[in-house]
Amino acid sequence: MNTPTEVPTPTEVPTPTVGSPDLADPRFWRLPAPARAEAFAELRRRPAPVYFGDRATGRGFHALVRHADVVEASRTPAVFRSGPGVTTPEPPRWVRLLFGDSMVNLDDPRHAQLRRIVSRAFTPRLLGRIEEDVRRIATALVDEVERGRPEDFVGPVAAELPFQVICSMMGIPEESRRTILGLVNRTSAGTGVARTRRGRLRVPGRGLAALARMQGIVAEIGRERRRRPAEDLISALVTADVDGRRLTGRELGAFFSLLLVAGVETTRNALAHGLHLLTVHPEQRALLLADLDGRLDGAVDEIVRHATPIVQFRRTVAVDHELGGPGGPLLRAGEKVALYYGSANRDETVFPDPEAFDITRTPNPHLGYGGGGPHYCLGAHLARQEMTVLFRELFTRLPGARSLGEPVLVPSSFDHRVRALRFTF
């Protein structure tokens, strides 16, 4: 048997190879997209995951950049643990105690228990109502585009659709929605790598204060729904009884925060990238408009693959593990790995001509909603539905809808965020 490839432990931060990409350096995420794509292509050609470390702290991570490695880490939760956190930095213990644990940061059995409660709440009746809401809200947004002719696609359209759908689904009163939207924007204001030192110090406190207020609003609605249930998701979550458990007020707040940050941000970014991709690839746009019903599902999948709204999540290795099987690179217990979904979605061994945008690509086993396993995106079906309905409504009524110029991006190692995108029709 081959000897496993040894990798550095978190305290053995290697000296980077001259000219090699450094994914731990914020400057890498400000490089042009083609330069980052070539860097990931180089990493995929390496025989083992590359370790990136912070010389100041001695902590680092192994970059999983191949499709097979990301799938393995996603589908082997006993080895690759989500706790204590999948984001960087990990949430401090006091924040988790105060605000509750997000499902993405939990492992079984607690993760499975919460997921069962949430899954049971999505009754056929509620799912039917959500489908009606998506169509109604998408129609109203395109109505407003026709009337008001907004210059930006992100705020008035791409962000508004998932936000309104989630608020309607949860049962958030209309009078509270603008307040909550402002709080959501404040909680995510720290995303990105281009902030100043002063901003890095100020934003976390403001973000936590906004999160606390938002969760307080939702907890109050939850208390009201326990007394007087309605036909909404909050009522279902606080009255459901699964193995003697239902969501507490803190768990409800954490779930709502996850829905808003994950559900709104990812869908809005995919929609914005999608409109731009269909603008700069006119041959693909023509294919789509020639058979909107027949090709729209494939177009949505290819948009998600090509744009990959979430750049990466992290896992903690629970036990020594040979990646890919016996003889593979050895990962030590306690080490961190980063799952780079965008790189996996351009793996040449899985996707022929991966840099091409091709709405007829089949099969398309992209990892835009995760690599499978227990943490596969709970909202994947809803996100597809929102994108499909909005693009069908937009291109049926306004077939000339297109972006103007390049999207304004937020440099980030976490998500592929679009701040603004000028458009017209």
What order do the strands of the largest sheet run in, or round the barrel if closed? 1-2-7-4-3
The helix content is: 40-55%
Low-confidence stretches: 1-18, 194-204
How many beta-strand runs? 11
Describe the structure in your own words.
The chain is an alpha+beta fold and 425 residues long. Helix content is 50%, strand content 8%. The strands form four sheets. The protein has a five-stranded mixed sheet. Strands 5-6 form a two-stranded antiparallel ribbon. It has a two-stranded antiparallel ribbon with strand order 8-11. The longest helix has 32 residues, at 249-280. Mean pLDDT is 88; it is low at 1-18 and 194-204.
List the helices and strands and how they pair.
Blueprint: H1 33-45, E1 50-53, E2 60-64, H2 67-75, E3 80-81, H3 93-99, H4 110-121, H5 124-148, H6 154-170, H7 174-187, H8 197-227, H9 233-239, H10 249-280, H11 282-290, H12 292-307, E4 312-317, E5 321-322, E6 330-331, E7 336-340, H13 341-344, H14 380-397, E8 402-403, E9 408-409, E10 418-420, E11 423-424
Parallel strand pairs: 2-7
Antiparallel strand pairs: 1-2, 3-4, 4-7, 5-6, 8-11, 9-10
